[in-house]
Amino acid sequence: MTEIEARLDALLAAPAASLPSFAADGRLYFLCDAGGSAQVWELPAGGGAPRPRSAHRDAVSFVAGSPADGGAVFGRDSAGDERVQLYRLEPEGEPRPLTADPRTIHAWGAFSPDGRRVACAANSRDPAHADPVVIDIATGAATRLREVQGPHELPGWMPDGRSVVLSTAPRTFESELIAVAPDGAATPLTPHQGDWRHMNPRWRKDGEGFWLLTDRGGEFLCVAFMLPGGTPRRLFAPDADVEKLEVSPDQSRLAVVVNEAAWSRLHILDAATGAVLESPEHPPGVITKLSWHPDGGSLAFDLVCPTRPATLWRHRRGEAAAELLFAASAAPEAVVDWQTVSFPTFDSRDLPGFLALPAGEAPARGWPVLVWVHGGPAMQALPNWRPDLQLMLSLGIAVLVPNVRGSTGYGRDYAALDDREKRMDSVRDLAAAHAWLGAQPRFDKQRIGIMGQSYGGWMVLAAVTEQPELWAAGVDYYGIARWKTFFERTGPWRVGHRAAEYGDPVADAELLERLSPLHKAGDIRCPMLVAQGLTDPRVPPHESAQIVQALKNRNVPVESVIFPDEGHGFLKRDNRRTVMLAVAGFLRQHLMG
Where do the Peptidase S9 prolyl oligopeptidase catalytic domain residues begin and end (predicted)? Predict the structure, then answer.
C-alpha cells in the first residue's frame, strides 16, 4: 500500500453520524456510514451502546423517528437512481418495505400526528409531477390525495391529522404552502404577490396558525408566525438566513439555526415573541438537523466541520454549552482547518470563501492550488468534512473554496447575480479567484487547478473553455457539457425547476447553446479528469461521455472514472476511495510534477 493510499484510508475510515431523529419512546435514530454507506443506527432511550438497524450497500437518505412508538421510517434508493422507497422499522426487528415501486420517487414528508400514517410526494402517476400521497403504516395502502402539476414537497400535516401541507417549488426562490384535504380540496395558506419563499411550516396545536421560515419582504429567511391566508409576523430576523426551525413539544420554544457566513449557530427562541432565550456554545461547524427529545428537556443535533466528520450533540435546557452525544470515531489526525477569506472580483465586490493551507512553510515557488467550486448554483459551499480535500492538502496542494455570485446564504440579491444572461459573470469570478491567488508569493500561479461537481462541473468546463490560459488541470464530476442534451435526458421531474434557473430549453435555446462548454471544447488546453455515475438521473452520463470524446478527438489528455452503481454523487466508500485516489494521482502529475 502506498503512502497516499494509507493516508486516504485513514481519512475514509472516520465515519460520520448525522440526521438525528427522536422516536416517541426517547430512542434516537440517526445515520452512520461506519459500514461503508450511510445506514440507520439507534441510540437506546435508556442508554447503552449504539446499534445498526439497517444493512444495505446503497445509502439510506433519511430516517424519521415515529411520534407514536419506538419505531421509524427510512428511505433509500437503488444505486443512486433517486427512486427512493420507504421502509418501516419497528422498535425491534428487521425493516419492511412500505413502498415497492422502483420507478417512483417517494420524497419523504412526515408522520401523521397519531403516527399511523405517513405522507410523501410521489411521482407514480407521471414522472414530471409529484402528487401528495398518504400511506397507512399497518397495511401499506397508499392514497393519492390530489393530482398536481410539477415538483412539490410535503413538509407536514395539519394538526387535525386529516389534511396535509403541500409546498410548491417552481423555482429556487419561490415556494407556497397549500393545505390538501382528504377529498383533494386545496386551500392556499400563503397567498401573496411576488416571488418569496414560505418554508418549514410548524403548526400550533390548536390549528390557528403556524411558524415558518420566510423571506417575504426581505433579503434573508427569517422566523415568522402567520395565520392561514394572512401575512407573516416576523419574530426573529437576523441579517442572515435562518435555515432550521423546530418547535419544542410544549410549543413554548423554537430551536433555530442561523447561517453566519456559512457557519451554523444554534439559538433557542421564545415561541411567542422570538426573543433569544439561549445560545448554547458548540464547536464551529455546520448543523443539518435538529430533533427535540419527546420530554422537551433537550435537543439533539448533528455538527460537521472541516476537521471531523459529523458527530451528534445534545443541548440540555439551561446549560451554557452543548455536549457531545455520540461520535462514530475519534477525530482524524493531521487534518487542516479552513479559514474564512474574501477576494475582489471584476465589479469591485468582495467574494466570500474558504482557504486551507498545507502544513509547514510554502515552497520556494509557492504551493500549487486547487479551486473547488460548489454545485447548484443556488447552493453554498460550507465548511464540511472533505476527505478528498484533506488528501490534497496532505500532498502539499492548497485549497480555495469560493462562494461565487449566485451562491445562497448571502441574500436574495447575491443569489440572483448569475441568473440567465448573467451566468458567465460567475465564471469571471473564478478568474478573479485565480488572480487573487496568483498575486500572492505563497501560491504558484502557474499551478492552479479547478474542480467541481454537478453544476460545479459545468463551472469547471466553462472555466477551462473561457479561460484556457489560466488553469493547469481540471476535474469535472458529472458536469453539464451541453444544456440542450442535458434537458433532453435529465429526469422529467427536474425540467421545469431547472429551466427556471438556467433558461427555458426552447425559448432560451440560443442562450443555452452559448453557455454550453462542449461547443468550445477545442479551446481546452489543460489535462482533464471526468468522473460519472451511470445511474445519475440529474446529469445523465451522456454529458460526461460527450466532453470525454471531444477531448480525445482533440488529443487533450483526459482520464475517465465511471461507476455503474452510483448516481448523482459517489456515496459508497470503496467507490469514493477509487475516485479520490484517481484525482490525487491526476493532480500530483499535473499540479506537482
Answer: 388-591
User: Cα–Cα distance between 251 and 272 in angstroms, integer?
Assistant: 9
**Residue 219, all three cell numbers:** 433579503
pLDDT tens profile 490-533: 888 777 777 777 888 888 889 999 999 999 999 999 999 999 99
Q: What is the dihedral of CA 379, 381, 387, 391, to 10 degrees?
A: 130
Tell me the one-letter amino acid at 434: H
> Which has the closest alpha carbon to 290: 254, 263, 261, 318?
254
Q: In 375-494, which residue ranges form alpha helices assigned H by DSSP?
A: 387-395, 412-415, 423-438, 455-466, 483-489
Give 48: exposed, middle or buried? Use CB within 10 Å, 0-12, 13-18, 19+: exposed
Give the integer Cα–Cα distance in Å for 531 and 322.
Answer: 40
* For helices 3-12 and 387-395, angle between their N-to-C axes, nearest 10 degrees: 150
Q: How far apart are CA 393 and CA 388, in angstroms?
A: 9
What lies within 8 Å, CB to CB, of 18 at 6+ separation is 30, 31, 32, 38, 288, 289, 302, 304, 310, 312
DSSP E strands, 127-169? 129-136, 142-144, 152-157, 164-168
List Cα–Cα distances, 76 to 67, 79, 106, 155, 344, in angstroms. Answer: 21, 9, 10, 18, 42
Q: Which of 233, 229, 222, 228 has the alpha carbon at shortest distance from 197? A: 222
67-94 pLDDT, tens digit each: 999 999 999 999 889 999 999 999 999 9
Which residue type occupies 312?
L
Question: Angle at which helices 573-591 and 387-395 pack, to 10 degrees?
Answer: 30
Query: How high is the pLDDT of residue 358?
Result: 97
Distance CA 163, CA 161 (A): 6
Tell which residue, 182, 163, 274, has the closest CA to residue 228. Answer: 163
Between CA 175 and CA 209 the distance in angstroms is: 18
User: Within 10 Å of residue 369's Cβ, how many Cβ atoms?
Assistant: 27
Residue 555: what pLDDT?
93
Q: Which three cell numbers stand for residue 399?
A: 485549497
- 378, three cell numbers: 443556488
State CA 185 to chain mean position distance: 33
Residue with cell 420566510: 214
Residues 6+ apart with CB under 8 A from 288: 18, 19, 244, 302, 304, 310
CA distances from 82 to 103, 341, 558 (A): 10, 35, 29
Phi, psi dihedrals of residue 128, rounded to the nearest 5°: -90, -10
- Give the C-alpha distances (Å, rounded to integers) separating 3 from 7, 8, 583: 6, 9, 15
Exposure of 418 by Cβ count < 10 A (0-12 exposed, 13-18 middle, 19+ buried)?
buried
For CA atoms 384, 390, 391, 393, give the dihedral sign.
positive
What is the C-alpha to C-alpha distance for residues 42 and 53, in angstroms, rounded to an integer?
7
Contacts of 2 (CB under 8 A, 6+ apart): none
Flag whether the pTM goes above 0.70: yes
